[in-house]
Write a structure and sequence with these properties.
- The structure is a single chain.
- Helices cover 47% and strands 12% of the residues.
- By secondary structure, it is an alpha/beta fold.
- The protein has one domain: P-loop containing nucleotide triphosphate hydrolases (Rossmann fold).
- The chain has a 5-stranded parallel sheet with strand order 2-3-1-4-5, sandwiched between helices.
């Protein structure tokens, strides 16, 4: 697809957004997501939503708002960390195949299969030949999913170095947030230049027609959350017309027999 601008050249700040408008827009988007989820439940649609990006960029906050109004039994959030002993030694995509959604369900990945071309590339957890080969493997993985009818939505959440620093210090100063900070975070932040290069390569090599990337600038959290939800509504609802399902005649008859209830004309 078209060449992306360098990630560190993307505009990060939007205009002002008052609290009332934010809450109205947020609720509207959450209701639209619920309508789409119910449609997928009825029709057997499946969705794989992947979020990647910097530490403290706001991935968790976006996921929290996305699932807040959904029917919980048919959406699963997978928080991806280091491979478990069972996963080590297998192909890196195995643990993602193992977490794909059943019919009617959605799977949300907080960090994704792109770890092979990000942290594994930069920290030397795989060879150069392996991470270079991974771009094609990932594109094929996503193509197989979309060919099978799965909707794949990929969001990269970007934050400036200065805003990331501010958020990390805020976490350190608040006891209930300190669990979110680990030594590996500082190691990753210190290698920002290398990560920028890896993200730029990722966007260029894996932004495909069937599974395009969407970049969300998150220095302003409210704008970022609304933009992320709009992307989900647009991509998960593409080609779908939401209509109210008719009442099953047999269910209507059962309600009438038991309670004498009949639907209003």
């Amino acid at each position: 697809m078209g060449k992306w601008p360098r990630l560190d050249e993307i505009e990060l700040i939007d205009g002002p957004l008052d609290d009332d408008k934010y809450e109205r827009d947020l609720k509207k988007l959450q209701n639209q997501l619920l309508d789409l989820q119910i449609h997928h439940l009825r029709t057997g649609g499946r969705a794989v939503i992947g979020l990647d990006g910097w530490d403290a960029a706001g991935k968790g906050g976006l996921i929290e708002r996305a699932v807040a109004g959904l029917e919980p039994k048919s959406v699963h959030v997978w928080r991806i960390g280091a491979p478990t002993p069972e996963e080590q030694g297998r192909h890196y995509l195995w643990r993602f195949w193992d977490r794909l959604p059943m019919r009617g369900n959605w799977a949300i990945f907080d960090r994704t299969w792109y770890g092979r071309v990000l942290v594994e590339r930069i920290e030397g957890f795989c060879s150069k030949a392996e991470w270079k080969r991974a771009y094609g493997e990932i594109n094929e993985f996503e193509r197989q999913l979309t060919d099978d009818g799965v909707r794949v939505v990929k969001i990269l959440v970007h934050v400036s170095a200065e805003e990331q620093k501010r958020r990390m210090i805020d976490r350190l100063t608040r006891p209930n947030k300190r669990h979110k900070v680990g030594l590996e975070d500082f190691r990753n932040i210190a290698k920002r230049k290398q990560y920028l290069e890896a993200y730029d390569d990722l966007l260029e090599k894996t932004d495909t027609k069937n599974a395009p990337w969407h970049v969300v600038a998150s220095d302003d959290k409210k704008h970022a959350r609304l933009k992320g939800l709009r992307i989900l509504v647009e991509e998960l609802g593409r080609g779908i017309e939401i209509v109210e399902p008719p009442l099953d005649p047999e269910i209507a008859k059962a309600a009438k027999d038991l309670w004498g209830w009949t639907p209003k004309k």
